[in-house]
Amino acid sequence: MEKSSKNKLDKEKTSEVVLGFGISRDFVNEVRENINFLDTKFLKKTVLSLHPADIADLFEILAEEHRRILASCLQEKLPAETLASLDEQVLNDVIENYKPGVLGDLLGRLDTDDAAYIIDSIEEERRDSLLKQIATEPRELIVQALKFPEMTAGRLMQRDYVAVPRYWSVGQVIDYLRGSVNVPDKFYSIFVVDPRHSPVGTVPLYKMMRSKREIVLENIMTNNPILVPVNMDQEDIAYLFEQYDLTSAPVVNIQNRLIGMITVDDVVEVIQEEAEEDMLQLAGVSGDTDLYLAAWQTTRRRFPWLFVNLFTAVLASITIGIFEGTIKQIVALAILMPIVASMGGNAGTQTLTVAVRALATRELNASNALSIFGKEILVGIYNGVIFAVIVGLLAAFWFGEQGLGIVIALAMLFNLFVAGLFGAAIPMLLQRFKIDPAVAASVLLTTVTDVIGFFVFLGLAYIMLVN
Questions:
Q1: Which of 216, 383, 399, 430 could link 437 by a cystine bridge, Cβ 3.0 to 4.6 Å?
Q2: What is the Cα–Cα distance from 152 to 230, expressed in whole angstroms?
Q3: Among residues 89, 154, 86, 78, which one has the least CA distance to residue 116?
Q4: From CA 261, how far away is CA 267, in angstroms rounded?
């Protein structure tokens, strides 16, 4: 194949990429080939035609060495928004060979919250030299953002916003927006403030556009806006936006003065992050860039929970060992034991997942905890009865032993009851003691259902079939 043919995408393929619906495998392979050829002209033309978010996806798909080569080719041409979309580990690969001046110029184009995220993600020894390369005004805003704890409103908020006094008219606001150079690129509401610069109302842009120029803001504003304290956790912010259907919200300091705003696009990212974090923690996997870490780093992060799981598995084995003599006399017990443990574990995980998610979204709280708790126990009993009958009949016909069917039926009923009980109780108890239920609940639940399931099943077998 001639090099010129490698350097051209057919019209259909280019359209697929430029439309921004993701990048195809053929396109990625094309980029890889041209990275190997070091064809800078092709890479700039083709990659820079993508949406910034698709460029970020491309970087994350490529191998580490290819990322660095592509980043070196693009340099200052790389859209600043792409950097804000990158995973932390990939980000460090991409900017490794960037000169501080080029990187500083890119960061100066970003919203404050995105720039602060990038500064906080890079190696500590590079931060000071990089900050010096950013223009004075955005640098000061970024430094202010970095003073706030991670995952709080102070980090999440944008410092650019539109705030006007309540006595202004709609016409004055429109003229101000047209003439000011400090208007943010993206905003949804006008914040109305008092002389102390405290928010007293909001006016959505759509209401501004529908109102006559002479109307005073005080007459059309929404009073008592929902305020976000600067130290509020991002999970609580996401709850406010979801609960009250907000598109933006003012952020205030301890003096109740307006210092920034949070928009819905930032909150959507938070909701996604929190959901992913809960899901990964339920599986004992770190939610922090786990996919792009080196193999040994990933191993180190996953080891603690696997070690805890080993300990709980030993507890289950000890329980089985207590009934070693019973198992020797009735070998069929060894065949049926996994059924009891598996059904209990799966039933408990169902309840656990629902409870953890409900706690995260605040659907489950002190006012309805008792009724939800009772419902999950009842579900466990219902499922226990149904599957006790199914498994009991199966075991009786399989081994031709009616007593064995009764034993596993009773064990199944009890273990599914326990699964519902502890699947709901463990997350609530952990939450009460200020422990994240997503982190520890699954390991505790597995231990309970395995140990109790084996103990009840083998204990009943000893009492009813052996003794």
A1: 430
A2: 7
A3: 154
A4: 11
What confidence score (pLDDT) does residue 300 get? 81
| Tokens (6 digits) for 36 | 């190997």
Taking each helix axis from N to C end, the angle separating 402-432 and 437-461, rounded to the nearest 10 degrees, works out to 160
Whether 50 shows a pLDDT value over 50: the answer reads yes
Q: State whether 125 and 252 are in the same domain.
A: no
b or e along 323-356 (b: 16 or more beta carbons within 10 Å of the residue's beta carbon)?
A: beebbeebebbeebbebbbebbbebbbbbbbbbb
**pTM value surpassing 0.85:** no
Task: Decide the pairing of beta strands 248-252 and 222-223.
Answer: unpaired
pLDDT score of 192: 97
> What pLDDT was estimated at residue 422?
95
Distances (CA, A) of 408 to 79, 213, 413, 464: 63, 78, 8, 11
Q: Which residues of 198-214 are buried (b: 16+ CB within 10 A; e: fewer)?
A: ebbbbbbeebbeebeee
Residue 273 domain flag: no
Asked, for residue 285, whether it belongs to a domain, the answer is no
Structural domain count, the chain: 3
Q: Which amino acid is at 131?
A: L
* Encoded amino acid at 98, one letter: Y
Q: Do 203 and 222 touch, CB atoms closer than 8 A?
A: yes
* Residues 173 and 142 reside in one and the same domain: no
Q: How far apart are the first and last CA of the chain?
A: 80
In this structure, the answer to whether residues 20 and 141 fall within a common structural domain is: yes
pLDDT of residue 34: 92
101, 131, 167, 197, 225 from 194: Cα distances, Å? 41, 34, 10, 5, 13
